[in-house]
Specification:
single chain; 340 residues; alpha/beta; Rossmann fold; UDP-galactose 4-epimerase, domain 1; 2 domains; seven-stranded parallel beta sheet; 11 helices; 34% helix; NAD(P)-bd_dom_sf; Lipid_A_modif_metabolic_enz; Epimerase_deHydtase
């Protein structure tokens, strides 16, 4: 297979490139040159936000498929898709479950209502509409059957540049009492970036088209299993202090942002993030590795790069202020369950 990856040097794009190279595919990476791609690929440079920024692609190809991870202005997807039409067999666009209208019902699949007002011609607006506009751009150029829409949920794993799992690992490695938001048995839903990449390329090989929710089955792990894996991977003296969700919320701590991955059970946000129907992806080959492997491999990568994870400038920083954590832990002393 001959694969073109638009991006390909960070997080999801890099995982896709590495998965393709393991398959023995011929890989071309189109990127701005800010980060080195994995060895063994052909590099083309350009900035798709600039005038004539796609010039390096004008005479390239043909390719069997392209994978596009773009998250900003949908018009950039539209322009790339139009340029590549006729020289690429299939357009795989890594989208997001954010394209569903909010609040979603728990357990819904790909037929759930979508956000309204998105356009393939739009400039950058807000994340959900940008991703839906990117989907529309891919379908406009390649049609439904040759457009694979990978609606990813929470993505974790090596190369993460959003700051969720790296923050938890860094915090737990620091040791001492750790504010662990409960309940401990809260089911989580996420996907290892390498499992996302492997499924996407398998779907490309099979010629799949249309939308797929791409995240683990609900309850692939729990909050307790996730944080216990972090303790085990880092090998420190951290003590998980399990704290009632209402105590966390009453302290003014923002779920998902200040305590990454976690949202309290029972609300619309929890349904949106951790209760998706992924039966379609499972039926087409999605395999999700254990949480311990995802966590341990991410910790090994963090140590390899010196302990500081890269951070996307277009994403908010994640994590809880140590003073806030200490204040909540002090207020709940004797109440919080410190069992690992």
């Amino acid at each position: 297979m001959r694969l073109l990856v638009l991006g390909g040097t960070e997080f999801v794009g890099r995982a896709v490139v590495e998965s393709a190279l393991r398959r023995g595919w011929e890989v071309t990476v189109f990127h701005r040159g800010r980060h080195a791609p994995p060895p063994g690929v052909r590099s083309l440079h350009g900035d798709r936000t600039a005038d004539d920024g796609l010039a390096a692609l004008a005479d390239g190809g043909p390719w069997d498929a392209v994978v596009d991870t773009w998250s900003a202005a949908p018009r950039a997807v539209r322009e790339a898709a139009r340029l590549l039409r006729g020289r690429v067999g299939q357009y795989a666009y890594v989208s997001s479950r954010s394209v569903y209208a909010y609040p979603p019902a728990g357990g819904t699949g790909e037929d759930a209502p979508l956000v309204e007002g998105a356009s393939a011609d739009a400039e950058q607006t807000e994340y959900a509409h940008d991703k839906r506009g990117g989907e529309l751009a891919a379908v406009e150029a390649f049609g439904v059957d040759d457009s694979l829409l990978v609606r990813a949920g929470l993505i974790l794993g090596p190369y993460e540049n959003v700051g969720r799992l790296p923050w938890w690992l860094t915090r737990i490695a620091r040791g001492g009492p750790v504010l662990a938001p409960g309940p401990r048995d809260l089911p989580l839903q996420y996907v290892d970036v390498r499992d996302l990449a492997d499924w996407t390329l398998g779907a490309v090989e099979r010629g799949l088209g249309g939308p797929y929710n791409l995240v683990s089955p609900p309850g692939h792990t729990t909050m307790g299993g996730f944080l216990a894996a972090c303790v085990e991977a880092t090998g420190g003296d951290a003590r998980l202090c399990w704290t009632d969700p209402q105590v966390v919320l009453d302290a003014g701590i923002e779920p998902w942002v200040e305590l990454p991955v976690w949202v309290p059970p029972g609300g619309a946000l929890y349904d949106a993030l951790h209760r998706a129907d992924v039966s379609r992806a499972l039926a087409t080959g999605l395999v999700c590795r254990p949480v311990g492997e995802t966590v341990a491999d991410t910790w090994a990568w963090l140590r390899e790069i010196g302990g500081t994870a890269p951070q996307r400038t277009d994403r908010t920083r994640k994590g809880l202020d140590p003073q806030v954590e200490a204040r909540v832990l002090a207020a709940t002393e004797g109440v919080a369950d410190t069992t690992p």
